[in-house]
């Protein structure tokens, strides 16, 4: 046998795929900001899931003798004007943000996928009709329309989720439509048509799997926007009603009235909102670079 020659088994052996640990380490090393965003998201989810265990006090019961107390060992983030522990309210507020963020983005992603894939795949008059409706949908100022709808529906957690989800779907459908237009004329789609596949089967097994990375990145980026929008309307008094602690509501009302006397009332909710939105944005950018083949080598 010639020296250095490989046997048939060695030639035919495929290289082993990297494990989960190797992939995570590659992600941390190549995308440190994305890894930081992922850590923030995981921390947010854990905090929301285990809020009853992590919160040292009740989020709605206060002590008048301890109102506006600065941070201390007993109350690490201080107390508000009603004597309620700020740390407990921040922890419980994470549950509100997670519910609104993921719920509204789930609705928005479902609507955007349905509208965008149908519009991009079928094209023609249907595409023109749908896109004109989307133009009208996006023409209204989002915050004005959001407040108007919540004024009609009334404040409430699920009203906020549904309204935000419907409003976020318009812009997202444009992105999904663009990705669908780039897929529908590929050779494998044409081959599926030639062998007699129905439009529904082509959409389900050939178009959606190739559009799915775009949908994942879009949903991740929209999570930060949804949480920021919920905080904005809660600050204006149209969000989740009391006694549920929402970070935006903490910035308004009592927080705004006592911010000069007790700056921690607005410092901690503002920091929680900023860190959460930053984490989702960085994770979305990193996922875009990883899932888009054109950006992997950048």
What shape does the CA trace take? globular
- Beta-strand portion reads under 5%
How do the SSEs run, as a string of H and E? HHHHHHHHHHHHH
Low-confidence stretches: none
CATH superfamily of the domain at 88-291: MetI-like
**N-to-C CA distance:** 44 Å
Which architecture name of the domain at 88-291 does CATH use? Answer: Orthogonal Bundle
What is the number of helices?
A: 13
CATH topology of the domain at 88-291: MetI-like fold
What is the highest CATH level, the class of the domain at 88-291?
Mainly Alpha
Sheet with most strands: none
Q: What fraction, in percent, of the residue positions are helical?
A: over 70%
Alpha-beta classification: mainly alpha
- Radius of gyration, in Å, reads 24 Å
How many DSSP E strands?
Answer: 0
Characterise the protein shown here:
- With 298 residues, this protein is mainly α.
- 71% of the residues lie in helices and 0% in strands.
- The protein has helices at 8-12, 20-30, 32-49, 51-54, 86-122, 124-139, 142-153, 157-183, 187-194, 199-235, 247-251, 254-257, 264-291.
Quick summary:
The protein has helices at residues 8-12, 20-30, 32-49, 51-54, 86-122, 124-139, 142-153, 157-183, 187-194, 199-235, 247-251, 254-257, 264-291.
Question: Can you lay out the helices and strands and say which pair or pack?
Answer:
Elements: H1 8-12, H2 20-30, H3 32-49, H4 51-54, H5 86-122, H6 124-139, H7 142-153, H8 157-183, H9 187-194, H10 199-235, H11 247-251, H12 254-257, H13 264-291
Helix pairs in contact: 2-3, 3-5, 3-13, 5-6, 5-8, 5-10, 6-8, 7-8, 8-10, 9-10, 10-13
